[in-house]
Amino acid sequence: MPNMKKSEIRFSIALDDNKVPEAISWSATDAGPDIHFAKAINIALWDREQVGTMKIDLWTKDMPIDEMKRFCVDNIGSMAENIVTATNDKEMADKMRALCKELSDYLDRQEQNG
Questions:
Q1: For the CA atoms of 78, 64, 20, 50, what is the dihedral angle to 10 degrees?
Q2: Helix, coil or strand: residue 61
Q3: Which InterPro entries does this entry report, sorted A to Z (predicted)?
Q4: Beta pairing class for 36-38 and 52-59
Q5: Which residue of 24, 39, 72, 113 has the smallest Cβ count within 10 Å?
Q6: 12-66 pLDDT, tens per residue?
Q7: Which 3 state secondary structure label does DSSP give 54?
């Protein structure tokens, strides 16, 4: 096997006494030496043995509700780009983008009425 480049991503989750995330930090070999901080993470893996999706969804207790909703919409948008790149299924991506637009408009109206 040729000499392959290896890249690592590490997450560190600080939990309170009730095991609720208080802080999320991450570092990656390709992101430089700095430690980065996040309020939420959403990790999805396709398990080759289970032939299904394994998910890790965590957010800190200081993650605002409006930001969490935007985070979810952003994830759908990211998946739309991923589906085009991985499968070239533009119709599916367009449907996902339309859902993102609908949800973004909904959140905009919520914020205006807020």
A1: -20
A2: coil
A3: Motility-assoc_prot_GldC (IPR019854)
A4: unpaired
A5: 113
A6: 999 999 999 999 999 999 888 899 999 999 999 999 999 999 999 999 999 999 9
A7: strand
The mean pLDDT of the chain is 94
- In a 10 Å sphere around its CB, with 0-12 CB exposed, 13-18 middle and 19+ buried, how is residue 41 labelled? middle
| Integer Cα distance of 48 and 27 in angstroms | 26
Q: How far, in Å, are 33, 35, 37, 90 from residue 29 at the CA level?
A: 7, 11, 15, 33
Give the tokens for residue 77: 């948008």
Quote the tokens at residue 13. Answer: 């989750």
What distance in Å separates the CA atoms of residue 74 and residue 71, rounded to the nearest whole number?
5
Strands in the chain per DSSP E: 9-15, 21-28, 36-38, 40-47, 52-59
